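Problem 3 from the worked examples.
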Amino acid sequence: MLNFILMELWTFAYYFSIMSNVSQFIYRYLMLCHRMQMTRFRHAMLLVIGALIVLVHNYLIYFAGGPSYTPQVIIWKIDGFF
């Protein structure tokens, strides 16, 4: 279970770093082409939108292939001791 949570956190961080790069391109486009001043709030909203897209993606991954919570018992039989 811990490995799965760590994998989800890593996946979120990885995809968020990709989606945050998109906000930089939008920021530069608006500054250079439209001479629009970007406030911190607008830039934060671009990052929040990217984070929401990543969260939806991670939830879809979780529900599609999340770990099963049924207990599984493995009994090892070695040389007839068990």
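Problem 4, a separate protein:
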Amino acid sequence: MEKAYLEILNSINCVNAVYKELLQNYIKPDYVLYSILEPPLTKTFTPLSVRRLVMLMALAGVLLEGMLLIGVLIATPAGRPTRESRV
């Protein structure tokens, strides 16, 4: 059992060495393409707080109102004559 475990570790180290060699010669040297023994995520994500969510919703509302205002201004005829002024 110990021999099989050591062979598995040796294989893992060989795979990691091949990837490190590829990364150093062909890709950014600090970037880790693949590793079996390291965790898949190195950054932890925190949940969105209620305060930040409300702030983002208010910002989205202001932006939406601005886009609606611009859309209405573009859609209304400013200098063109209307039906009432033609008659």
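Solution to problem 4. The chain has a mean pLDDT of 77. Residues 46-80 form one domain.
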